[in-house]
Specification:
8 helices, mainly alpha, transmembrane
Length: 187
């Protein structure tokens, strides 16, 4: 795309405008990155404190009955359950970046329990679906982006985000369960 833009700028005689746009765009990208880093570092720190304080274990116990219903073969107290709970908690807070380490660890643990190492298990598929369509109580990253672009109230989209994420999560879980059941019956 960059080469195409430079080529079009050269052919139309507007190469100077392309150069200015490239320089302006890179400067804006760096400013955006620095603004996002502050919010992301803060919330990642909060998640680390929550884990060190044992809050994630308490949340794992809270989510345990629901998660055991959704994920077959996972028992209370399993390490995978704590990682899934921590991932869900980070996503609830709108912290996709903070959810990544616990999500990776959960997938590793789910893979260890997977009898067919070449194919994703139903639990792995369900976890990816839930992680992708996660409920966000606090859309932190979007709020930081909105704030950096001058929004008067960066968090005024909480209700819309909550409704959309709940709808997408339930739809995603339903489809994963239905398609998983269909695959089991086909085998």
């Amino acid at each position: 795309m960059i080469l195409l833009a430079i080529g079009c700028g050269f052919l139309t005689g507007r190469l100077e405008e392309v150069n200015k746009s490239v320089l302006t765009g890179t400067s804006q990208a760096v400013q955006l990155l620095i603004g996002l880093m502050g919010g992301i570092c803060f919330w990642n720190g909060i998640m680390t404190i929550a884990k060190d304080a044992g809050l994630t274990k308490k949340l794992a116990n809270l989510f345990s009955p629901l998660l055991r219903l959704l994920f077959h073969g996972i028992n209370k107290g399993d390490q995978v359950l704590e990682n899934i709970s921590m991932n869900i908690t980070a996503n609830l807070m709108g912290l996709g970046n903070a959810a990544t380490p616990s999500g990776i660890q959960a997938m590793k643990l789910l893979q260890q329990a997977n009898p067919d190492k070449k194919t994703a298990s139903q639990n792995m598929i369900l976890f990816v679906v839930m992680n992708t369509a996660a409920i966000q109580l606090i859309p932190t990253t979007i709020a930081v982006l909105r704030s950096s672009h001058g929004a008067a109230n960066p968090f005024d989209l909480i209700l819309a985000t909550l409704l959309c994420s709940i709808t997408s999560l339930f739809g995603a879980i339903l489809m994963a369960k239905l398609l998983g059941r269909r695959k089991r019956h086909a085998d």
